[in-house]
Amino acid sequence: MKKEQNKMEKIVAFLKDNGFINLSSEPYGGFSSSYDYGVYGVEIKNNLKQAWWNEMTKHHEDIVGIDSAILMSPRVWEASGHLSAGFADELVECKSCHKRFKADELEIPSLEEKIKKLKKDGAVGINEMDIELNTKIWKKCSCGELITDLPKKFNIMMKTFVGPIESDTNVVYLRGEACQGIYMNFLWAKNSARMKIPFGICQIGKAFRNEITPGPFTFRTREFEQMDLQFFVKPDDADQWFEFWKQARINFYINLGISKDHLRFHDHPQNKLAHYAKKACDIEYLFPWGWSEIEGIHNRSDWDLGNHSKFSGTDLSYFDQEIKEKYTPYIIETSAGCDRTLLAFLIEAFNEFENGRNNEANNVEYLLKLNYQLSPVKVAVMPLLKNKEGLQVKAREIYNTLKFEFNTKFDDNGSIGKRYRRQDELGTPWCITVDFDTLEDNCVTVRNRDTMLQARVKIVDLINYIKTHLC
Ligand code: GAP
Question: What is the pLDDT of residues 258-280, one digit of tens each?
Fold first, then answer.
């Protein structure tokens, strides 16, 4: 366990040091549980979103995309059930410090501590104490106070106000899940793209939840991004599509480089389903702290379109020309956390070499072995020496050609070994060195990140060479 904790600490430090992810508001000492993506973090996050978008929309004729607003009519959240107990955490509250906790996070006090508390609260008889000891929940707050009241539900929707007046009539919510924006666009997307059931609508967007126990790191935060598919089907076909999307979605992670052994399905038992779900399955990744959800797949039945029809008065049912029948479509949802899956990809790619790998023995070196599609930088161009004009000019020429094709970096700082090491840390698949021979033969040395093998490639063939190998 200690080893795994150390691994996570190392990864968090590595991600900060290399411009991937850091706590937000750093000049103010950081703002707990909010994170910023840095110069390389934003690139890899964009690559992940692009890979997901291509996979889900471009590769499927029957799926289209939208981008809906974060602020919506508050009625949306009434209809969706998010303002009721269904979208709430069960918490206990400490009467002394007023902090709220999930009950199972807290210690159980000793018998002596319980009796001391009962006496303080005025209990005297053995019988009375016995009843209290056996019927209350008995937890110990981090401030030392004992908590005895049963957990209550606390809603986790984030509220704000629209307009200049802060009153109950102006309350709006930051969306608690991105999919509600898709339901609002069901008719518009269906009609404008002339879609027929079965079909899907995708969206990537932010969601907000006032999580009581955020962490670890970016795994659970209050502001996060979801990559959602809502797939609308005939009710009789829902089970079959549910199975289809389970397989398709786990394959997405495998194809992008996560080992099969680090992924598994977790089917939810019927008594643990979210308020909207008829069936649910998580895709879990083996994080350093254990198996945890990265994506939820749900059969949401006709809950969403049915409720929005009722609450809005707009008919969101579907007339199926094939069977000449009207029905409310069932929805199969695949909802992946962008931040969470990105963290899984980063953890999976992280490699540490205690005794170096670029001829710098005894130095710890890191390698981010990302799938090339996800790598923030694809190519680094390096003149062998910084102060030789001929090498600089040639290297700049190559850089200026490649930068229109791939995310390319120019690096002339330090020894070649150090530069390789820097690019390994960013997960850059290709390093191109311009040396004195280049000036004669118009060839460069291309070094591969994973094999560290070097090939001599003609400058005119470089774009094709990299394109072919990136695939
Ligand atoms: N529309 C369904 C829905 O939102 P969910 O299981 O609550 O379902 C889907 O969320 C995914 O969103 C999760 O699998 C997770 O990856 C991500 N997610 C949920 N809450 C999150 C949080 N507080 N921080 C980061 N990611 C979160």
Answer: 999 999 999 999 888 887 889 99
Q: Is 67 helix (H, G, I), strand (E, B) or coil?
A: coil
Question: Does domain 377-470 match CATH 1.10.260.40?
Answer: no
Query: How far apart are the C-alpha atoms of 458 and 46, rounded to whole Å?
Result: 31
Query: What does the pLDDT look like over 23-49, one tens digit per residue?
Result: 999 999 999 999 999 999 999 999 999
- Give me the residue spans of the domains in the chain: 57-75+158-347, 87-155, 377-470
30: left (phi over 0), alpha (psi -120 to 50) or beta: left
Alpha helices in 369-449 (DSSP H): 389-402, 416-426, 436-441
- Whether residue 215 is predicted with pLDDT greater than 90 in this model: the reply is yes
pLDDT in tens, 392-423: 999 999 999 999 999 999 999 999 999 999 99
Please tell me if the CB atom of residue 224 comes closer than 6 angstroms to any atom of ligand 1. Answer: yes
Q: Which atom of ligand 1 is nearest to the CA of 220?
A: 24
Going by CA atoms, what residue is nearest to atom 20 of ligand 1? 220
Taking the C-alpha atoms of residue 265 and residue 248, their distance in angstroms, rounded to an integer, is 12
pTM of the model: 0.89
Beta pairing class for 223-233 and 330-337: antiparallel
**Alpha carbons 117 and 224: distance in angstroms, whole number:** 41
The CATH classification number of 57-75+158-347 equals: 3.30.930.10
Taking the CA of residue 293 as reference, the ligand 1 atom at the shortest distance is 14
Residue 86 has pLDDT above 80, yes or no: no
Cα of 467 vs centre of ligand 1, distance in Å, is 35
Q: How far is the CA of 314 from the centre of ligand 1 (A)?
A: 28
Q: How far apart are CA 385 and CA 333, in angstroms?
A: 54
